[in-house]
Each structure stands twice: as C-alpha cells, then as structure tokens.
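can u do me a favor
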C-alpha cells in the first residue's frame, strides 16, 4: 500500500514537498520513484531513487529544481519541488519497484502551479 501526500496549489516559483509512504520492509524494495501525468498525455518519469546506495535518476525537465530523497531505513520517499512552473501541473504518482519484480502505484496527488 502506498500513501502519497503533499500536493496542492502553489504559485509559479514556489515550492512543494511530496511524500510517499509504502507498506513493507525496506529489504523488499529495489527503488522508489515519482511519475506525473496530465490529461491526454502518457505518464512520465520525474525521479527515482534506489533503496540500496541511494542512486538517483531525474527527468531532464526537473534537474536542478526537484530533489528525491528517501528517509533512512524507512519505506518513505520525498520529492522536494522548487522553482515550480505552470508546466509542472499534473497528478503526481508514487511508484515502488520490488525485488520480486512487482511494481506498485500510489493513488496520485494533484499539483497545480498557477498564479
């Protein structure tokens, strides 16, 4: 089970932090990440982080603005979003990758960047 939180309305240039808490033990996970989707478009990767070593991967359009991090020893991943732009408006989804090969999605949280 994944529980995402932290979405909302923010003005351009503002910041938000998304958080995703997953059920289970960290040893069962390979990686966690955030994706986003706008109506009429495919869901796209925003950022991922491995649970061992903490290697990160970012989409080009968020590099330098967003930071993904994992709470040590916990199955919680945060996405700090700074310098938000109107084009960042989307539903953001948490995703986890398990050692078993299974992949799970969270329920999504709306982020709206507008003045």
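np, heres the sequence
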């Amino acid at each position: 089970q994944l529980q995402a939180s932290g979405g909302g309305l923010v003005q351009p240039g503002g910041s938000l932090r998304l958080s995703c808490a997953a059920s289970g033990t960290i040893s069962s996970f390979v990686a966690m990440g955030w994706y986003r989707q706008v109506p009429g478009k495919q869901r796209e990767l925003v950022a991922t982080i491995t649970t061992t070593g903490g290697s990160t991967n970012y989409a080009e359009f968020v590099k330098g603005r967003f930071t993904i991090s994992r709470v040590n020893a916990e199955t919680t991943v945060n996405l700090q979003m700074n310098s938000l732009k109107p084009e960042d408006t989307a539903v953001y989804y948490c995703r986890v990758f398990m050692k078993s090969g299974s992949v799970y999605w969270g329920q999504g949280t709306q982020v709206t960047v507008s003045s």
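The first strand starts at residue 2 and ends at 5. hope that helps!!
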